[in-house]
Amino acid sequence: MSGVTIGDGAVVAAGAVVTGDVAPYSVVGGVRAKHLKYRIEPDLIPAMLRIAWWEWPDDVIRERVDDLSSPDIAAFVEKYGA
Fold first, then answer.
1. 9, 24, 39, 76: which is deepest, by most CB within 10 A?
2. Same domain, 14 and 32
3. What is the pLDDT of residues 49-73, one digit of tens each?
4. Least confident of 1-5, 11-15, 66-70
5. Which domain holds residue 7?
């Protein structure tokens, strides 16, 4: 849909009909998609957006793949937070 923004880290469920903006790290689903939950703790979202790991060069991502694969988002933010 024209004019809709899907935030960084967001997940849109298969078959969802997105009619409005989707917040970063939000999970949405349904026909007229609605917010279901956040992928990470909401207080960590601003730091993850500042870190913007998806903008890192490929070689840096390869070096840090273990940290990127860890389920401990708070530790990741503490280590790489700006």
1. 76
2. yes
3. 999 999 999 999 999 999 999 999 9
4. 1-5
5. 1-39
Q: Is the dihedral of CA 45, 41, 56, 16 positive or negative?
A: negative
Split into its structural domains, the chain has a count of 2
Query: DSSP label at 55?
Result: G
Report residue 58 as tokens: 């490929």
0.85 exceeded by the pTM?
Answer: yes
- Let me know the angle formed at the C-alpha of 37 by 31 and 39, rounded to the nearest 5 degrees: 120
In the chain the beta strands, taken as DSSP E runs, fall at 11-12, 26-29, 34-38
CA–CA dist 30, 61 (Å, integer): 33
